[in-house]
Amino acid sequence: MAGLQCPNCGKENPDFLDNCQFCQTPLRAESSVQFGESPVKKHTGELEPILPQWLKDVRQQARESAEEDAAEEAAKPKVSNEPPDLLAGLAAQAKDEGEEVPDWLAGINPPEKTSEAEKPSASGSISDFFAQFEKSEPEPELPRVEEEPASQSAEMPVWMSGSTDSAQAESKDELSEWFTQASMEESKPVEIESNELGWINDATTLPSFNQPEPAKEPEDLSWLHALEDSTKKPEQPSSAPAFAPDSLPGAGASMPDDLNWLNQPGGSSATAFEAPVPTQPEEQSPESAPEDLSWLNSLGGIEIPASPHEAALPVSPADALDWLTPQEGQTISPFEEKPAESNLNWLKGGGQETLINPTPAESTSPFTKIPTGALDGGDAVPDWLKSATEEPSMPAPGALSDWFKDDDAAAHSPLQPVPIDPNFIPAPMDAESLSNQDIDSLFSVKLPDWMSESESKIEGDAPQQTPAIPASSDESLAPVNLPSWVQAMRPAASAVVAEPVSMSEEAEREGPLAGLQGVIPVAPIGSSRRPKAVSLKLQASNEQQSAASILETVLAGETTARAIGAQSIVTSQRILRWVLSGLFLIVLSAMIYMRTQNLPISTDLPASVRSATSIITRLPQNSSILIVIDYEPALAPELEAVSGPLLDHLVLTTHARLVFISTSPSGAGLVNRLLLNTGISSPAGINYQPGTNFVNLGYLPGGASGVREFIDAPSIAMPGAVEAAFSEYAAVVVLTDNGESGRLWVEQLVAKNQADAGYFAFQPLLFAASAQATPLLQPYVDSEQINGMVGGLAEAARYEFVNNSRPGIARIYWDTFGAGMVLGVVMMIFGSLWSLIAGLRARRNAAEAG
Amino acid sequence: MPIDFLAGLVGLVLTLLIFSYLIGDNPLFRLATYLFIGVSSGYAAAAIWHFVLIPKLFNPLRSNDPAQLILAVIPFILCFTLFAKLLPRISWIGNFAMAILAGVGAATAIGGAMLGTLIPQSLAAMDMFDVRGLDTAQAFTRLVQGAIMLAGTVAALGYFQFSAGRAPDGTPKRNAFFEAIAWLGKVFIAITFGTLFAGVYMAALTAMIERLSSMINFIRQLAGI
Q1: Cα–Cα distance measured from residue A760 to residue A729, given in angstroms and rounded to the nearest whole number
Q2: What is the set of domains in chain A, with CATH numbers?
Q3: Would you tell me which residues 679-738 of chain A have a C-beta closer than 8 angstroms to some C-beta of chain B?
Q4: Does A592 touch chain B (CB under 8 A)?
Q5: Which of A13-22, A668-677, B26-35 has the least mean pLDDT?
Q6: Per-residue pLDDT tens for A372-404?
């Protein structure tokens, strides 16, 4: 057996499978019709050759009789109230071979029949099967029906004859009574309220249909039992009039429409209950083809409502076949146990054009609402057919919408809340009993070979046809244009996203859609609508992005390790340091050792020194001079050399009383060294005596606060101070090596002077500053906040030279200082050139290295 | 004499120990450093005890004047609370004294800076262009000097002005005018740094000369030269 390869998974599958057994992918492109695709008609004419000869003859006879009937009907006056002959397709089949489908098969297709039935000319080919329900008085038909089969029983198939033979007596009485009772009841218009629409979604809300009739008679379907028994007795001659013997193999050609019953079970719904009454029984001759099935008219003893205005009870095809279904309490074991798969597909496939994807409503809808408009007369086309083609209009206020009555929605609805007359005896409405499966099983108990063969053939093709649904088939009841207001009320159209909807691959097992496949779209639950991914991208302007990039660059620069410049060899650094240190030591030591004083000293004093000299000369004699020691021991030699000329000049000029105060703890101990080195306190010098000529008040704590306190109250700030007021000091001389600490005295003195004008307006402020503090104090000298200043050894040497070379410290250092300055300058220049040359060499090497 | 000799000798040895740093860090250098720190701290403690605590804290408590005694107790209590800083659990006790020190010191420093530096220096920069009472030569010299000082001050302040616009490529960049001012300010700042370095160099050179001179003189004395 050649297998089929799955186009999806590539696995081999048996050729009898339509879908891949692994991935359920259709193996044949033509095997299934997807949802939304139109079914493709297949030519079933190829089945013609396989038909038995007797059936071919029957078909030929049917064509001929149909032509004759058409001619007769054309000659007759038109009867407007005649029910549409849905089976007229058999008689009106085209004889040309160019027709795609044999007419006898197309006649079974209900939608095509509807198109045919809409034609007034086709009214003449009304089937007696439907005409019987239009008769107001079916009773007269019964004798005629009973007469006909008697002569034809010999030609009837044994399986049919047997069934009719055994069932005619009981079933006729029971079912006819049932139909009569149902038809005699005054039909009530269907009233469906808006709040009753829930039955559409819930089939269980129709218990009334399932309520068994308490008045059932157990022998209602006994004829079915007889039918079953008759199948076991093919030899028994049958007198049943239901099937004309001529229509069966070997029968004569006098019964051309005897196979119309084949169209009914799988075809359109029975319109008998809505057919108008005025059909005259006498108009149908016993010899005419429509009367061949007249036995069915009397089978149930149906009483057609006499008045056409009486609304017929909407009956679905299943309802119409309820007479075949057993009632509750009856024992119908053989047929009830038939599997559900035994449907009427064999009829569809064998008797009409093969509809690949039959509409579920056609095949499984147990209830089909039949409009009652046809009873009004005047139109040969029933309303239920019109409703399929006509566009419904806006319903009148309070009235039931036409679309709701007639359109496919009603047709597709499994159940309808129809008010049930208490006297109405419904057949059991179980899923099994309501479907046509029982009917199918009824006729499939024992079928002729030709039917069995056809059925088996069709069933072989059935799996290929069932999965898809012709959603857009013109032959179904689907193409109904809903009014705009109804469309606006339908939330599904707007709610359902246009996403590909997959169809269920599994056949329905329960409910009205049992046995169908691919009817209900399978929508993914919870995953069909995923929330759109929200973009987290910030909407930043160009400026913000540039700022962010700058910040990122800055942060990257902070975290990126900078390449450290290539360090020279440590030994070279150490050697260089040793070389430089050695040069300084050697040069300076040599200069000191030689005690040379050959370098000249300029006599041009700087302005600040000149101002200081001028102030000192103007100070009063024997006045108290405040000397502030504001330097550390490390720079004591410099400050001693710088302040020496100033103090010597001051002492020699004014013989002032020196009051020493220190702003550093170690400053107090430097006072004696200062006076000793400058020669003020030395016996060989001025020989100032402590306590008499000078006073060391000690350390003044508190920084600026201490200075301010001392300025405000010297005796309180420094208990050893003799002067009660700061104004008692004739001058303030600050010896400092730090510009910041020296600035405190300037600031606090100026602040006190501005707060108390004239407090010490004429109290000079002199500075002897280290060379490193001079640049910081020079602005205060320029602003005249400092009246005079001697800064550094250079100025001190000049001042000392002007001061008669006293005390001479500056001059001793001056040559060595000069040599050290030159050495320092030379080293710095040489080092700069060395660095420049080394840099150029490095660049050249780098350039050569690429 | 022996004291002067010992003092000179100690000075010579310690100086050599410090000079030993020229050949690298060594225990002799560290020994000299530790001695210097210890002697300085001890001297500072003695100086504070002698020049601050005794005359300003304890002596007032022996006063017979009740007013002066009360005024002496308050700083004594505040000073005593500062010892609480040694114990973290009760360090909060010394916060009040510390607040007084910080507040009074800051207020004094800020007031002095405003009145003694900012305003007078600003006025002095303006007065450089006041040529009243000066002859032409002096006026010209003063104006040139004042212009250089003003340019240096403005340029140096402009160098520390970091507000900038944005270049087309997004990088911050000052406009051309401020860029020129900043460049000029950088020149003046470089000159100032050079001046400060020269002052430091001269101060250090003077100290070194003094040290070498003392050593050589001590050796000369020892040698009898």
Answers
A1: 9
A2: 1-31 (no CATH), 35-522 (no CATH), 570-599+816-850 (no CATH), 603-807 (3.40.50)
A3: 697-699, 701-705, 708, 718-720, 737
A4: yes
A5: A13-22
A6: 444 444 444 555 555 454 444 444 444 444 444
Give the pLDDT confidence score for residue B200 in this predicted structure.
Answer: 92
Amino acid, res. A776 = L
Of B120, B172, B199, the CB nearest to A550: B172
How far lies A802's CA from each of A614, A649, A653, A799, in Å? 12, 10, 14, 5
pLDDT, one tens digit per residue, over A336-369 is 444 444 444 444 444 444 444 444 444 444 444 4
**Strand, coil or helix: A99:** coil
The secondary element (H helix, E strand) that includes residue A662 is: strand A657-662
Q: Which residue of B has its CA nearest to A580?
A: B22
Q: Which residue of B has its CA nearest to A816?
A: B209
Tens digit of each residue's pLDDT (9 = 90 or more) over A214-246? 444 444 555 666 565 655 554 444 444 444 444
User: Does A774 contact chain B (CB < 8 Å)?
Assistant: yes
Quick check: A747 and B59 CB within 8 A? no
Per residue in B17-44, pLDDT (tens digit) is 998 888 888 899 999 999 999 998 998 8
Quick one: closest CA in B to A548, which residue? B170
Cross-chain residue pair B40–A743, CB shorter than 8 Å: no
Of A546, A665, A737, the CB nearest to B43: A665
pLDDT (0 to 100) of residue A474: 46
Place of tokens 């229509």: A247
pLDDT mean over A133-162 = 44
Would the pTM of this model clear 0.80, i.e. be above it? no
Residue A459: is its pLDDT beyond 80? no
Answer whether B112 sits within 8 Å of A668, measured CB to CB: no
A180 and A333 Cβ atoms separated by less than 8 Å: no
Site of tokens 């300010």: B185
Contact (CB<8Å) B205/A821: yes
What value does the mean pLDDT of chain A take? 65
Is A352 in contact with A265 (CB distance < 8 Å)? no
Using the beta-carbon criterion (under 8 Å), do A592 and B166 form an inter-chain contact?
Answer: no
Give pLDDT, residue A726: 86
State both tokens at A263.
């169209």
- Across the interface, which of A743, A748, A775 has its CB nearest the CB of B196? A775
Pull the structure tokens for residue A78.
Answer: 């038109």
Residue in the block written with tokens 């919408």 = A401
Strands A657-662 and A624-630, how do they pair? parallel
Inter-chain touch B209–A813, beta carbons under 8 Å:
yes
Which residues of chain A neighbour B59 with C-beta distances below 8 Å? Answer: 719
Which of A3 and A750 is assigned the larger pLDDT?
Answer: A750
For residue A631, the model assigns a pLDDT of 92
Vertex B30 angle, CA B25 and B32, to 5°: 125
Give the whole-angstrom CA distance, residue B52 versus residue A468. Answer: 112
Q: Which residue has the tokens 């070194």?
A: B208
Of A184, A389, A474, nearest to A306 (Cα)? A184
